[in-house]
Amino acid sequence: MRYRNFPQLLLAVFFVGVVTTVANAQESLPELVRQVKPAVVSVTTYDAKDDSLISGSGFFIRPGQVMTNLHVVRGAVRAEIKTLEGKGRSYAVSGLLAVDEEADLALLSIDLPLEKSRVAIMGTSLPEEGEKVFAIGNPLRLEGSVSDGIVSAVRDVPNLGNIIQVTVPISHGNSGSPLFNMKGQVVGIVTVKVTNGQNINLALSSARIVTLLPGNLSTFAELANKTRSPLQADALADVWYRNGLDSLWLGNYESALSYFENAVNKNPRRAEAWVEVGFCKVKQGRHQEAIRAYQRALQLGPGSAEAHNRLGDAYFDSGRFEDAIASYRQAVRLRPDMAEAYYNLGMTYLELGDRASALAQSSKLASVDPAWNKKLQSELAK
């Protein structure tokens, strides 16, 4: 009789365990918010009359250094940040330590005691589709607002990095907000973009953020002067190029291609624009045209590992596997830490039935990037 009841008792214990686990998971978000919120700040900019312009968000990436979106501070005469810990305190922005025009990033230098900086922990791997994430920021000047959701998709944009699409509710003022995973690590930075869909919000992955290193301090006036150059051919090409990147953020490859083709017509010497033309044409299945675009990019910049890797993709999709291998090999020669190229090599060898060579790429990936290696291992296990 006792043996007959034992499974029921075990089942009851199991359900108690599940309920407890779910309860802990529900409690984890408030605890995480308490832990990471001190690293987040609001950003307010001012014009020459000292009237406020726009507000945004940011976070401490290093002591005395705040990361935000470039469009938040562009056009400002001065700016200040406000911390969210306790009652919060305002501190002046002394200038810009670095900007990344393509990625819409600005690294700000803050006038505050370094011990007042609560630095955010940066994540080292991309979140997965369906993974829960949350953002903290300053939407509509409602400081310290928390919103959560899941990762809808992760898209790769050449020369920019990975774009994370999330269902996290985002409003104006959230620009520059850190996107956290459920370990409290920053996996991206929110950038508000014009979208026509519901719950389609975008963030740039942390891998691009950590590459923006501090340099010489520059003023907001110096930033403004850079954007006042006349719209000559190169400057017009730059406008088209940035519009193309905006379309790529949204996965609108047809619109992006139109912009990038205008960019290379205005400035045919811009190698990265040719890479984007090739990428869009691959997405449209126009592989031969993509190959020609990548080859043009490599004529202009033969040392681009990104272009060699993308050319390999175009060859692979065309069924030209030996050419793909040659391109991927060139990519890893130029950049021995380029995990995606090792993965692509492994997948191409698998396509050719050369399992031993695919395993060799997995061995290299084990030390270069365990996440990419796990992805290749899952393919090897099929």
- Output the helix-strand order: HEEEHEEEEEEEEEEHHHHHHHHHHH
The total strand number stands at 13
In DSSP terms (H or I, runs of 4 or more residues), the helix count works out at 13
Share of helical residues: 40-55%
Ranges where pLDDT stays below 50 over 5 or more residues in a row are 1-26
How far is it from the N-terminal to the C-terminal residue, by CA? 45 Å
Structural class: alpha+beta
In short:
By secondary structure, the protein is of the alpha+beta class. The chain has 13 helices and 13 strands. 41% of the residues are buried.
Keywords:
23% strand, 382 residues, 13 strands, 6-stranded antiparallel barrel, single chain, alpha+beta
Question: Can you tell me about this structure?
Answer:
- Strand 4 and strand 5 form a beta hairpin.
- The protein is α+β, with helices and mostly antiparallel strands and 382 residues long.
- The strands form two sheets. It has a six-stranded antiparallel beta barrel. Strands 8-9-10-13-12-11 form a six-stranded antiparallel β-barrel.
- It has helices at residues 2-36, 70-73, 206-209, 220-226, 233-249, 253-266, 271-283, 287-300, 305-317, 321-334, 339-351, 355-368, 370-380, and strands at residues 40-46, 52-62, 65-69, 78-83, 90-100, 105-110, 121-122, 132-137, 145-157, 161-166, 178-181, 185-191, 201-205.
- It has 13 helices and 13 strands.
Please outline the helices and strands.
Elements: H1 2-36, E1 40-46, E2 52-62, E3 65-69, H2 70-73, E4 78-83, E5 90-100, E6 105-110, E7 121-122, E8 132-137, E9 145-157, E10 161-166, E11 178-181, E12 185-191, E13 201-205, H3 206-209, H4 220-226, H5 233-249, H6 253-266, H7 271-283, H8 287-300, H9 305-317, H10 321-334, H11 339-351, H12 355-368, H13 370-380
Parallel strand pairs: 7-12
Antiparallel strand pairs: 1-2, 1-4, 2-3, 3-6, 4-5, 5-6, 8-9, 8-11, 9-10, 10-13, 11-12, 12-13
Helix pairs in contact: 5-6, 6-7, 7-8, 7-9, 8-9, 9-10, 9-11, 10-11, 11-12, 11-13, 12-13
